[in-house]
Specification:
The complex is a heterodimer of chains A (295) and B (342). With 295 residues, chain A is mainly α. Chain A contains twelve helices and no strands. The two termini of chain A are 38 Å apart. The chains are: A mainly alpha (295), B mainly alpha (342). Chains A and B meet through α5, α6, α9, α11 and α12 of A and α1, α6, α7, α9 and α11 of B.
Chain lengths: 295, 342
Amino acid sequence: MRLSPRARAAWLRCLTDPRVVTGGLLILSIATLGLLAPWIAPHDPQEQDLLATLMPPAWAVGGEARFPFGTDTLGRCIASRLLYGARIALYVSVTAATGAMLLGTLLAILAAYFGGWVDWLISRAVDVWMAFPPVVLALILLVGMGAGVNKVILAIILIDWTRFCRVIRSEALVVMVRDYIAAARLAGFGHRQIMLKEMLPAMIPLVITMMSIEMGIAVIVEAIMSFVGLSVEPDVPAWGVMIADARQTMHQAPWGVILPVGAIFLTVLGFNLLGDGLRRALDARLVLSRAVATP
Amino acid sequence: MAFLALQLLFRRLLLALPILLCVSALVFGILRLLPADPVAMSLPPGATAEDYEKLKQAFGLDRSLITQYGIWLGKLLSGDLGGSIFFRRPVSELVWVALPATLELVALSLFLGISVGVGGGLAMFALRGGLGEQALDGATTAMMAIPEFLWAILLILLVGVSLQWLPFIGRLGPGIQLPPTITGFLLIDSLLAGRFATFGSAFTHLLLPSIALAIGLAPLVMRVLRSSLLETAQDDYVTQARLRGISENRILVRHALPNAALPTISLIGVQGGFMFGGTVLVEMIFAYPGLGNLMVDAVRNHDLPVIQAVALIYCVLVLGINAVVDVAYLAVNPRLRLAGAR
């Protein structure tokens, strides 16, 4: 693939940024562990061993090597459930963030390009959506649509498109007044061609950055919804379900809570670091102000 | 000046009314998608088809959607939020008990979050370029990677269960009597009644949930304040103040902070709104009897009138806090303040 010198420089900045590298490696390893779960998990995540309930991790007193992270109230292997839980977390984060990104970016570009009543309508819709605390809107949507992991994904898309729409619309308004857009118009380009071929590429760095942060948000929202029992079926090992189950017994077995919280922490941390690093590496204005600001 | 601010606030709230109307229609519309049947659920076992029709009429569910919305909106405007299907009490009664509890929680959380955030932001700025800044930066990254409801659980585990420093269930300790209800705010009512033990118990019960909520806000405030302070520090008037021999601390507090505070204030407006969302789960985890707990109970029991009313109240609170913050933004902005004085 041939890259322009500017694109190559941007890639280089990304790949040498410590945040991007750390975050990327974190996400990559969690994704690999999740994908390999059927082969590396020591047990079936649903397999119950009622003679070995609430076991501590292998390194603690009373732990056993066959349950590296201990067991829950039903004697299920926590390590195996964590590995399978990674699949759900990443599945939701990729699909929901992609959906929200597509919807939000599309509406943002339409609003900025056509202006007038299109912009008015989209901006007012964003205002209305922003009046809801996201969790409250998610709860209402899931009451309306019914529970389930795919409904959670749909709910995240229907809620978080506004995050993309607001930011990308204001960036698109800046791009709209650039000379090359006017040149494209004079050259007789169609609406779709200008929006997709001329405007969109200018916003790709911003879209990628926001996408990374949105993936972290999606992981949290899925955990919240499976925690209150509105996401996956109760027998599916999601991190939120594990926390909700283990909360009842956290006096005797704090590990059951701490380990899935740690899993969520590492995943969200990975996406945040990635997003933060990309923002600094790709956003020219920020790079400039940072160069000035740090002595 | 105060009058001007009130006028601004009033105008800002007026602008929020059409948004609120759309919000109410949206809430109403989404909840009518519900596949479950609230009438069937609120009937005792062994009810006849006739009972079903009667109850359906009593709930007004036999009429068209638009009529239902109209009736609901009309009653809403006269202060009637309808009756709860699950709790079998008027919704307004439930809300009047829960709302002050949530407001108390959010007020303390905002206070904690803003004070720690501003303090931390100033510290990060003062320690810029050193190891201290890097340590604080790392701390904010870690704090932001754990959502409020998980902080709530971790705090219960650490401070409540292991160290046993603070209580973590409900609003008051066992055996402590409620003060007579005057405002509904437990902290204020207990002080008015002169019951300091009750005040202490209510306050300690508030601490853990509000720390959990504040952790969501503080790191964001720290980061935004730090970066806008870094920007203002480059401005000419700061250099000029320095040349006049004004001490660094005074420059920071009197000259740089008022200008640098503006993005932070906007941020607090947005995040303050989100904080109401955070209360939903935090209240549920701490069994704290506020709006969030009411909402989760209502969601679990498909109690439509309660869900509708509480969702709408959340939106009113968000729009309200946004309006207040917008006005504060104008009031604090040094440039606009000058223009107003002339």
